[in-house]
Specification:
Blueprint lengths: L1 E4 L2 E8 L5 E5 L10 H4 L6 E6 L7 E2 L5 H14 L5 E6 L2 H11 L4 E7 L8 H13 L1 H12 L6 H11 L4 H9 L6 H4 L7 E6 L7 H10 L3 E6 L6 H4 L1 H15 L4
Parallel strand pairs: 3-4, 3-6, 6-7, 7-8, 8-9
Antiparallel strand pairs: 1-2, 2-4, 2-5
Helix pairs in contact: 2-3, 4-5, 4-7, 5-6
């Protein structure tokens, strides 16, 4: 299903039916597809994935900003008539998810962030990474996927990861990095008053665990679980385990336990 926005057309997929809905989005150029394996481990939930603007099958004519992506998430929740749901995001998707919760807290029972990247990137590292993307996009994506998956040597997961990421254009990939220069969240997140589950692999080579620790320290109702031996995308390498954690958290957050 496509959700029409004033300057974007957002691709969403809905799986299953259940009393609790998980609305999930990816990070950087990772589309909502990164959640699909995990969805299979939540058979009693309704699970909805969103390809945020610049990724997957979504398209856009306007600028990519964190503010626009947050409004997109709110619009998808409204269009899909999910009622109150659990919002989930991985990596850089955390910034848009946090802002969506700040803007429309009534829509969400809880928030799940995996490998949360919510602070401004280091300027020098950002410039170097953008230059690498411009120089050899596919090779840079392959290196990025390798860094995401230190806990496995799976050729299949690496191939899948590159396929997901490479659906984004170079220009959109760069814009998704550049838009983070204006993140306004450092102090705003202290205003969030709903349960938040933070999951972070202790071998994350993309986003340091300290990112989730810093976020947990600013949130009133945060649970931080550091997952030993896992890298940046445990939802892909350990989907059943992450799904069980989300199910437990979501059931409590929705008041069904």
């Amino acid at each position: 299903m496509f959700i029409q926005r004033p300057d974007a057309r957002l691709h969403t997929l809905s799986f299953g039916q259940g009393p609790i809905t998980l609305l999930a989005t990816g990070g950087w150029v990772g589309s909502g597809e990164v959640w699909h394996d995990l969805f299979g481990h939540l058979p009693d939930w309704r699970c909805i994935s969103v390809d945020h603007r610049g990724t997957g099958a979504s398209s856009h004519t306007g600028s990519i900003t964190v503010e626009a992506m947050a409004d997109d998430l709110i619009a998808v929740a409204d269009a899909m008539r999910v009622g109150t749901c659990v919002l989930a995001a991985e990596s850089a998707g955390a910034a848009a998810a946090l802002l969506a919760v700040l803007r429309a807290p009534q829509l969400f029972a809880g928030l799940v962030l995996v490998g949360a990247s919510w602070q401004q990137p280091v300027p020098g590292a950002k410039v170097a990474f953008i230059a690498s993307l411009r120089h050899d996009y596919l090779a840079t994506l392959r290196g990025f996927v390798d860094a995401c998956l230190p806990e496995t040597d799976s050729v299949e997961l690496r191939r899948w990861g590159v396929q997901i990421l490479s659906r984004a254009s170079v220009d959109d990939a760069v814009e998704l990095i550049a838009c983070r220069a204006s993140l306004p969240l450092e102090e705003q997140v202290r205003c969030i008053d709903l349960p938040v589950l933070l999951l972070h692999g202790d071998d994350d080579r993309i986003v340091p665990v300290q990112s989730s620790r810093d976020l947990a320290a600013r949130l009133a109702r945060a649970e931080l679980l550091v997952m030993p031996g896992l890298g940046h995308v445990p939802l892909i390498t350990e989907p059943a385990r992450v799904a069980a954690l989300i199910e437990n958290f979501g059931t409590r957050a929705a008041g069904r336990q």
